[in-house]
Design brief:
The chain is an alpha/beta fold. It folds into 2 domains: 71 residues, Arc Repressor Mutant, subunit A; 111 residues, 3-Layer(aba) Sandwich (Rossmann fold), CATH 3.40.50.720. The chain is built from 9 helices and 10 strands. α1 packs antiparallel against α4 and α2 crosses α3. The longest helix has 21 residues. It is globular and about 60 Å long. About 3% of the residues have low confidence. The chain binds nicotinamide-adenine-dinucleotide. The site of nicotinamide-adenine-dinucleotide has 25 residues, from α5, β5 and α8. Belongs to the transcriptional regulatory Rex family. Homodimer. Its main location: cytoplasm. It is found in: Cytoplasm.
């Protein structure tokens, strides 16, 4: 199985760098909408609470070259980040598990702005199969291989109960799916040619909850 984690090194960029690129993109997009033509690493760093050296290093992976002491052309920077993330290309995904989380992701329009279209949805519940959600008909999960073939999807967004995750993964294994965005807490066993990213909201919360007591202490000592 191919996994994405902090040990996984792409040739040119670390995972933390890749994770920071969307916030640069948002900032650059806003700057472009405000008519700004040039933006410096120092300004980007200030807005995002980062060090300018970090910003320069991160942006260098996209191949963009800034002008010393001037900055980056905003439109060129936008294109460079989009292209580096492959957000200028179209990707098709199927959501498997149309419960609370699957439904929320379906409605999250921002993914479409980054080239990701939900082309199908599937579930195992007889009450849900055949009904409509977000203009898509819920398919029977048993028909997943046919749905993948029909839609040309290359990604599965997995939002089933943990107890069902591996069963679904085994069905996906023999299809043309290239990536699974796995929201369950199950370490999936799949073929090496499928990239798996485990997504966990708890890790963001862990950072917050760990820091909370320290912030309280700071407040008390001021
Ligand atoms: N990663 C995160 O941060 C995060 C956050 C919330 C929930 N989750 C996980 O996401 C998953 C979904 O959570 P939820 O709250 O939406 O649950 P839910 O019970 O609301 O939805 C699960 C859906 O999966 C369907 N389902 C069950 N077995 C299936 C199968 N074999 N094939 C296809 N569909 C099947 C159910 O009918 C239901 O519609 C759970 O594994 C949960 O732990 C992860």
């Amino acid at each position: 199985m191919s996994k994405i984690n902090d040990n996984f090194k792409q040739k040119v960029a670390s995972i933390p760098t890749i994770k920071r690129l969307p916030s640069y993109l948002n900032l650059v997009k806003r700057a472009s909408q405000e008519g700004v033509e040039i933006i410096s690493a120092t300004n980007i760093a200030k807005e995002l609470d980062l060090e300018p050296i970090q910003v320069r290093k991160d942006l260098a992976v996209t191949g963009i070259i800034g002008k010393p002491r001037i900055g980056y052309n905003v439109n060129e920077l936008f294109q460079a980040i989009q292209s580096f993330l492959n957000w200028d290309k179209k990707h098709k995904a199927i959501i498997v598990g149309t419960g609370n989380l699957g439904s929320a992701l379906m409605k999250y329009g921002e993914l479409k702005n980054h080239g990701l279209t939900i082309v199908g949805i599937a579930d195992a519940s007889p009450e849900k199969i055949g009904t409509e959600k977000n203009n898509l008909t819920i398919s029977d999960v048993n028909d997943l291989p046919a749905l993948i073939k029909k839609t040309g999807a290359t990604m599965i967004i997995l939002t089933v109960p943990p107890s069902e995750a591996q069963n679904v993964a085994e069905v996906i294994n023999d299809t043309d799916i290239k990536a699974i965005w796995n929201f369950t807490n199950v370490k999936l066993k799949v073929s090496d040619r499928i990239l798996v990213l485990m997504e966990d909201l708890s890790s963001g919360y862990a950072v917050l909850s760990f820091h909370l007591p320290f912030y309280k202490e700071n407040e008390d000592t001021e």
